[in-house]
Amino acid sequence: MYKIMLIFxxxxxxxxxxxxGGTKARxxxxxxxxxxxxxxxxxxxxxxxxxxxxxSEFVWAYNKFGFGAIFDYDLHGSxxxxxAHGIKVxxxxxxxxxxxxxxxxxxxxxxxxxxxxxxxxxxxYGLGARFSLKGASSGGPFFHASxxxxxxxxxxxxxxxxxxxxxxxxxxxxxxxxxxx
Length: 181
Known about the structure:
By secondary structure, the protein is mainly beta. The protein has one helix at residues 2-19, and strands at residues 26-41, 48-61, 65-76, 80-93, 96-110, 117-132, 140-157, 160-180. Helices cover 10% and strands 70% of the residues.
């Protein structure tokens, strides 16, 4: 499934560039913060909880579509650090956008247990909006708000394949600021 989504994102990104007919892309840089409510299970059992995460993005935005990179960083107290990075595509309707992303790498690292890290891949779906702080939509600073659904499948623990992968599903709002140029 993940390989199909990766191929879809790459083909969709290439198609978005081809449809612009030479139109120059706006570049979007943004940082957002999210309040997270998560559930992690392995074999049907696992913890639930909350955390604060950061999301950074760099997007090449054309008229109706865009593509770019995403970076997530999450600190659960002083004992767990989560990070993920990947690629994404966006479809636009005025100030609003739909996104689909593929996490090339997802990692959970621990300092308080015998397990050092768990690694895998994932998918991100989102719906959001960007609102210019200058009143012009062609560039400058903006405020953004969105809701993301992220699914991670962690298949390795300290570099060794797990007999049963850990599936983590998160849903969270993101609020932040960015700059378009």
